[in-house]
Write a structure and sequence with these properties.
By secondary structure, this protein is mainly α. It has two domains: about 130 residues, no CATH class; about 250 residues, no CATH class. A hairpin with a 4-residue loop joins strand 2 and strand 3. The chain starts with a helix and ends with a helix. Helix 7 runs parallel beside helix 14. The longest helix has 28 residues.
């Protein structure tokens, strides 16, 4: 019996004391609890961000930049595959065991602990930033210049510049944009040079963005890119029309530079593009800002909106329509078999709505009160900045 006991102990590996196991399990819960307890203390959150989180994200960005592929995608895919395997294996094993509930608990506990550690680390590296002074507050934006007249003036300014630049970017014989995505990715790292001279908080090292292998899936859910603090990596959906790619990359790079709120990242990304001295990036910045501004103006003054829209170049209208057509096409599936198309289109709609709901809830849970609508708040920053500059 003694020999059997020794053999069993050797097969099971190191005998970890229960107190150690309990500590490992409880520690992430304590860390998450401390975050939620202290997150409204701006001083504590700023201290963590300034002295720890930002540096760690920068190191992770440097580390992931070594790989030519998206580390984020690899980790997510590996986690999903492993989780599916783990669930199937658990079901198979549990069928032949007594004390099924106890065994199920033992199988679920490690997964839950790993998930808690991931969430705790994500809080530490990213969610902390939502509770620190934002870009607008740090740089004295007050929102007191946002009037309809200023909105109209800034919209005209963006329309004029977009019109001029729309004819300078590369197009095919049909007038459609044909920019090179690889060139955009390569040149994106230097786009923030002027913006950083205007706002020193935008200084920092940027790394080449990664094209996403599962861009088609991102398109189906309606997203153009993502920055993941756990890898420090900018990941880009390469399926949408290329004329918005520069501003998409610049938006995600804004996150990489520590701009947390979506409206501020959109503003910073547009500003970086239009001050870059690069025609392709400038056009993307002015066109993106113009769409934000026109959407806002259409609510305030339809006649002026129609006047400005009517004066847009043929190239801009073509690009805008191509963008609409692309995203409209993502809402339905066409295989040629009606009942399959209807079923998959319904699934696509449900998945997209679910992703939006979850992300909206996540943003609001971090005191981003506008949720997904915070992308529209970019207009206030554009109007305030460009009405006085």
């Amino acid at each position: 019996m003694n020999l059997i006991h020794k053999l069993n102990k050797a097969r099971s590996g190191i005998n970890i004391p229960r107190a150690v196991i309990a500590t490992i399990c409880i520690l992430p819960v304590v860390l998450i609890g401390l975050f939620y307890l202290l997150r409204h203390n701006s001083g504590v959150m700023s201290g963590i961000e300034d002295h720890f989180s930002g540096a760690v994200r920068g190191f992770l960005g440097l580390l992931s930049s070594v790989f030519p592929f998206s580390v984020t995608e690899v980790l997510i895919a590996a986690a999903i595959i492993w989780l599916v395997y783990y669930i199937i294996r658990t079901v198979r094993i549990i069928r032949h065991r007594s004390g099924k509930l106890y065994f199920l608990g033992r199988r679920v506990l490690p997964v839950a602990v790993v998930a808690l550690y991931c969430w705790g680390l994500f809080n530490l590296l990213w969610n902390v930033g939502y509770h620190t002074p934002g870009f607008a507050e740090k740089n004295g934006f007050r929102g007191d210049n946002v009037t309809v007249s200023n909105l109209t003036a800034v919209t005209r300014f963006f329309a004029d510049n977009a019109n001029e630049l729309s004819r300078l970017v590369d197009r095919d014989d049909d007038g459609r944009y044909i920019g090179n995505r690889r060139v955009v990715f390569a040149e994106s790292k230097g786009v923030y040079h002027t913006a950083a001279s205007l706002f020193p908080c935008l200084e920092g090292r940027l790394y080449r963005p990664k094209p996403m292998l599962f861009s088609w899936l991102m398109s189906r859910t309606g997203y153009t890119g993502m920055y993941l603090a756990l890898t420090g990596e900018v990941n880009i959906n390469i399926k949408p029309p290329g004329f918005f790619l520069p501003v998409t990359v610049s938006h995600e790079h804004a996150h990489q530079l520590g701009i947390f709120a979506e409206d501020e990242a959109s503003f910073v990304g547009i500003l970086a593009c239009i001050t870059s001295g690069n025609v392709v990036f400038e056009y993307a910045g002015y066109l993106s800002g113009l769409i934000y501004l026109l959407n806002a103006l259409s609510v305030e003054d339809v006649e002026t909106w129609l006047e400005i829209y009517s004066g847009l170049s043929t190239e801009i209208k073509q690009d805008w329509q191509d963008n609409r057509d692309f995203w409209q096409a993502q809402k339905k599936v066409e295989t040629g078999v009606k009942f399959i198309d209807d079923a998959l289109t319904s699934v696509t709609r449900v998945v997209s709505d679910t992703v939006d709901t979850v992300y909206d809830g996540y943003l609001k849970s971090q005191d981003q009160e506008l949720g997904i609508r915070s992308y529209g708040a970019c207009v206030d920053l554009l109007v305030e900045y460009f009405s006085v500059n």
